[in-house]
Design brief:
The protein is about 40% helix and about 15% strand. It is an alpha/beta fold and about 450 residues long. It has two domains: about 200 residues, 3-Layer(aba) Sandwich (Rossmann fold); about 250 residues, Rossmann fold (3-Layer(aba) Sandwich), CATH 3.40.50. The chain has an eight-stranded mixed sheet. Strands 11-10-9-12-13-14 form a six-stranded parallel sheet, with helices on both faces. Helix 16 packs across helix 17. The radius of gyration is 24 Å and the shape is globular.
Length: about 450
């Protein structure tokens, strides 16, 4: 590139790692732009002090932020969008939520595009990294940029869509080492964006068009969502038939990877069933894919598999609540007086990330069944505006009639369940993440009920 000034708009799980990786490239200067909102404005001062918003789950990012912000002074954060206008590459990493009606909300995306367009200079690259419905870059972002700038995409400025394949705990690793898909509005736009990303990506940078890249992003996550739904449906089948889904999964997945005939390779990878699907991406990306084809497709498509998978995965926290209510009644516990300990509030193990956590619908389902005495424990989530968190697991379990495992934190895998059963009023464990094996349950003399396993409840 002729210039090394990069602006990254949106300091979240995608924007921060991208920004600091570019800032660590010799000669690059990076400015992060973040609104001073009540929810996220605090990140501006924190990052400028060389501190990380997620030091425990991403220690390497914490070290990198310190280095580029304080030692190299190649990264700083501001709320002034005019700073972005002085850059030659602008990456958009803002929220694109999908609400209950399954329609994406592009308020932030549209506002940022308008602000960028009003100050856009010729030759600048604008790249959308936010996950969007297929067709959004060309049909939503491009017209806003062109109208507010008076310039044409592909002629006066470069426009692209390129997505991160990030996962909390592996943010830098995934950006560096996974192939990067870059969709350009024109081939020249795509090559300009690819040239930029080659500075931080060790794997191949693959060029395509905007629409294909947008479809690829949403399909990646929809694929995983559908596979999880399959595993969850098999778990429900196994519950009904009286077999253990985890034993079935082990037997299914023991088919080998046989490279001798790739077209007929027998390998299987049945996913894990569980108490529900959370996170920023999986609960929304199937809806983005559906919205894209519904809005911009040439003809209607009945997306039965995508919608069915979403519905099934959304139902799993409710199924967990049904299991809790059933086992409590079978043990003679009135739901109105039952005390339930919920173990795990984040959606991901060893993380404090609570975005779209299955714990929220699970708690709601418990309350709708008349269970009001609920205590929540999570070793990583210290505060939450929706629920009070108890930090001592044994205090959370004290006098509980049932403990429900919603997140597979290592603390629960290594918990002394014999001690736990002694502080509980009734040693009932509802295991939504296969955290306790049948032999462990028998040794600890706890009554285990799980999603998928079918076994005698009493040890």
């Amino acid at each position: 590139m002729n210039s090394t000034r990069v602006a990254v708009i949106g300091m979240g799980y995608v924007g921060i790692p991208a920004a600091v990786l570019f800032a660590d490239v010799p000669g690059f200067q990076v400015v992060g732009v973040q609104r001073r909102s009540q929810r996220s404005g605090w990140k501006i001062d924190l990052l400028n002090q060389g501190r990380s918003p997620f030091p425990e789950t991403e220690p390497e990012i914490a070290e990198l932020i310190y280095r580029v912000a304080l030692e190299k002074k190649s990264f700083r954060v501001t709320d002034d969008m005019a700073e972005a206008a002085r850059s030659n590459a602008i990456l958009i990493d803002v929220q694109t939520p999908v609400e209950a009606d399954h329609v994406p909300r592009y308020k932030s995306l549209k506002e940022v595009a308008t602000q960028i367009g009003g100050q856009l200079r010729k030759g600048v690259l604008v790249c959308v990294e936010s996950t969007v419905a297929p067709g959004t870059t060309v049909n939503v972002v491009k017209p806003i940029l062109e109208e507010s700038s008076g310039m044409r995409a592909g002629v006066d400025f470069h426009l692209a869509f390129s997505y991160e394949r990030v996962m909390l705990g592996r943010l830098l690793h995934n950006i560096r080492n996974y192939p990067r898909i870059v969709g350009g509005f024109t081939p020249a736009c795509g090559e300009r964006a690819a040239e930029l990303y080659r500075n931080i990506v060790k794997a191949p940078v693959v060029a395509t068009d905007c629409l294909t890249a947008e479809v690829s992003k949403t399909v990646e996550n929809a694929y995983r969502d559908v596979n999880i739904a399959f595993a969850n449906e098999i778990a429900l089948i196994c519950e009904s038939l009286g077999v253990d889904v985890y034993e079935v999964r082990k037997l299914v997945n023991n088919l080998p990877n046989d490279p001798s005939n790739p077209g007929a390779n027998p390998v299987r990878n049945m996913h894990l069933p569980g108490a529900g699907v959370g996170g920023h991406c999986l609960p929304k990306d199937s809806w983005l894919l559906k919205y894209g084809v519904d809005t911009y497709g040439l003809h209607p498509v009945e997306t039965r598999i995508l919608v069915g998978a979403r519905s099934l995965n959304d139902s799993m926290p409710v199924h967990m609540a049904d299991l809790a209510a059933t086992v409590l009644k079978e043990e003679g516990v009135s739901l109105s007086t039952a005390r339930v300990a919920v173990l795990g509030y984040s959606f991901l193990e060893e993380s404090d990330d609570t975005r779209n956590t299955p714990a929220i619908p699970f708690l709601g389902s418990l309350r709708s069944r008349g269970i009001s005495d609920i205590v929540v424990h999570d070793p990583f989530v210290r505060t939450n505006e929706l629920v009070q968190i108890e930090m001592d697991v044994y205090k959370a379990l004290r006098n509980a009639d049932c403990a429900c495992i919603l997140t597979r934190h290592k603390q629960y895998l290594n918990l002394d369940w014999t001690k736990a059963s002694r502080v509980m009023r009734r040693p009932i464990i509802l295991d939504g993440r296969n955290a306790i094996t049948p032999s462990q349950a028998s040794e600890c003399r706890v009554i285990k009920v799980g999603v998928g396993p079918a076994m005698p409840r009493r040890p």
